[in-house]
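Lab meeting tomorrow. Please check the following:
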Amino acid sequence: MAIVLIVITTAVIITHVETMKKVLLLAISSLLLVACQQNVSFTSFQSIPSHSWDMDSVVVFHPIVEDSIGDYQMLISIRHTDRYAYQNLWMFVDVKQDSVLLRRDTIEAQMANARGEWYGKGLSEHTLPIIYLENITLPKGEYTVGIQQGMREESLRGVSNVGLKLIKNIP
């Protein structure tokens, strides 16, 4: 009887420990998920009409920086379909604060490898985040970020959305 009681007690303790491990793992995962989401200061996607990005069309975002202490990353995301015909994408990016041009860049995004396999996530639509600026210090205020396609096509088919994300680096 004593041996059966010890075996049952041990089984209950082991089950309890395993349950506690699962609960602790779930709690830690939840905290990490919440902590990771808190450093995103701004995120937005703009739709491209008819999935065709015109050469003269500028996609505009208005992120607001409320905390000037610390560095930020700025990411541009391109969402496209299989109708996108190129391996790369050239873009012109302007960053302004209070109508003052802070920087103007020409950037190239590699959209696919040499075999034509898309980078990014998705099946029928692919989303590719591109690090535009890293470890930048931004004073408080509202910014205007304009993104324009820089390919030699009047209308660039297959691009469905352009996004901007501003992430505060956590030391």
About this structure: Residues 61 and 102 are 15 Å apart (CA to CA). The chain is about 20% helix and 50% strand. The first strand starts at residue 40 and ends at 47.
